[in-house]
Amino acid sequence: MVLKLNELSEAQGRYTNIPFCVFQLDEMDDRSVLHYELGFYEKSGESCYRGTLTFALRYDFIHRVLMLHVLRANHLPVEEKGRTVDPYVKMYLLPERRNHCKTRICKKTLDPDFNEMFSFDVPFNSLSTRMLQFTVYDFDRFTRHGLIGNVIMRDLFDKSDLYTWTEYTMQIVGSQEKNDFGDLLLYLLYSPNEQKLFVTVAKAYNLRPMDITGASDPYVKVEQVYRGKRVKLRKSTCKRANLNPVYHETLEYDLPLSQVAETNFLIQVMDWDRIGKDDLLGCCVLGKDSPTVEGRTQWENCFLSLAHTDVNGHKRKPIGQWHSILSEVPEQFRNIPKAKK
Questions:
Q1: E strand or H helix at 269, and its extent?
Q2: Span(s) in the chain for CATH 2.60.40.150
Q3: For 2-175, which CATH class?
Q4: pTM of the full predicted structure?
Q5: CATH topology for 183-333?
Q6: pLDDT tens digits, 197-218
Q7: Checking CA distances to 16, which of 6, 26, 239, 252 falls within 20 to 30 Å?
Q8: Residue 118 phi/psi, 5° resolution?
Q9: pLDDT of 1 strictly over 60
Q10: How open is the CA angle 54-56-62, to the nearest 5 degrees?
């Protein structure tokens, strides 16, 4: 729903007569603000500054909306000489991620002037548990949109009383690694009595947009590989138009203890396509042959926990781990043949 600011507020000056959108925030998911405060994406020693973002905030007490004016970005990076950047910004009021707002795309500029107004429908007394996330992208019509970086604004009450318009300029934080394809949270639990492994696909964060609309339709394929051959393949549901999907889906696999040492799991995050072939958004591998420390460590910890018997008879807890998604499937896991039955 697109409205005019002067239909909702008595604000004066440049903050009037600017088109903006109102987003209802009725449903909260299970992710806490603490999760974002800890910030798995803010990995110490790996972040760098990638320009600045300027915006303004005010709370409209009459209509119970947090009003957001995205003004401009400056000094955005360009990865290659002679290449241009087509930036746009997505905004979330964390921890809610189901609703977001997005600026228009500014063509061929490192200093985009957005000058767009948005509004989140949220009670004032709940703002103490919320924080704003701005994600800056480089639009690409034909491939993945490039992630430039993020701005996280915490402690909304401490920054301003929100009774009047207050302008902020904050640094955009990105990864020093150019190939940042997002993160995936997985849980593993092994049942020695049943000889089964339970893989829970929990959620993904900051996936690359693949569609011209700036979205993707992600689902997760979990492939059990034993001695270089595919034993079983299962899939999660597909989450439409979502770069931060929440699944909380558990997939079950038969896995005798005698086969653990020679078993790996290939996890692929895919973008569903109605017409053509589904695209790979990224992947990770669990097992001793994983190319990442996270993939090997989670696998080892899952089976190390078998040695610790709970004297009270309580069930072991699943082993959780965030994985930085790889851009390509490792060579040894490509074109895996099916195992003969």
A1: strand 263-271
A2: 2-175, 183-333
A3: mainly beta
A4: 0.57
A5: Immunoglobulin-like (2.60.40)
A6: 999 999 998 888 776 566 789 9
A7: 26
A8: -135, 165
A9: no
A10: 165
